[in-house]
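Margin note: ligand = nickel (II) ion.
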Amino acid sequence: MLIDSHAHLDMEDFEKDRDDVLARAIQTGVCHIISVGIDLTSSMAALNLAQKHAYISCAVGYHPHHAETCKTSDLDHLAQLASEAPVVAWGEIGLDYFRGYASTEAQVRIFEDQLALARDLNLPVIIHDREAHEATFSILKRMGKGERKGVIHCFSGDVDLARAFMDLGYFISIPGTITYKKAKQIKEVATAIPLSCMLIETDSPFLSPEPRRGKRNEPAHVYYTAMEIARLREISFEEAARETTKNARALFQLPRDAGE
Ligand code: NI
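Resulting structure:
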């Protein structure tokens, strides 16, 4: 059984065939999906989906791309939503200095505000860090104290950075890009770090793995990521699936799914 720890099921890309996408995930052995919000609207949509399906949980939060439009009242609204049962994390939040859609100041401000909120609500956080390793690390080091930690989603650093985040108590989530021939660094990370610190994800509809590269991604494809991790570590697919599923269940305190 697999858990896709990060998908954007609410997105437009799934509007026409969402039920088919979910059915394919179940057929492939995906037992749970975390649908992740990027702003108020998408967080509400993710919550709506999670309320309809026992095998979907959700995270609410403001992505750094949308930092400029995020108002204090939006975060208050999200904090209210966070008390609903299918909300298992706050995210995705963080810093994106690659696209730079929002100013650094705005990104840092809402990142810190949301870390504080997540801590008050005792929710783990889902962290987006793109070309902002140093700043993300230092903010988490300063503000990430507390029992419930989180996950560095779609990890894009090297082994040393993965270990540094792990030392702070964070899980490392491996995306489908690990299947790309030239993705040397993420292959190294997935081989070097303990399986006990690892989650897997699709980031659907983005980042489709080989052999689906270039097409829309979907939760069923988390299978290819688990296969590649098993191949690299010379373990069985079952072990890779079992351990990453166990980790996701622990971090997000997921209910025991039917079929486990
Ligand atoms: Ni995402």
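The longest helix spans residues 104-121.
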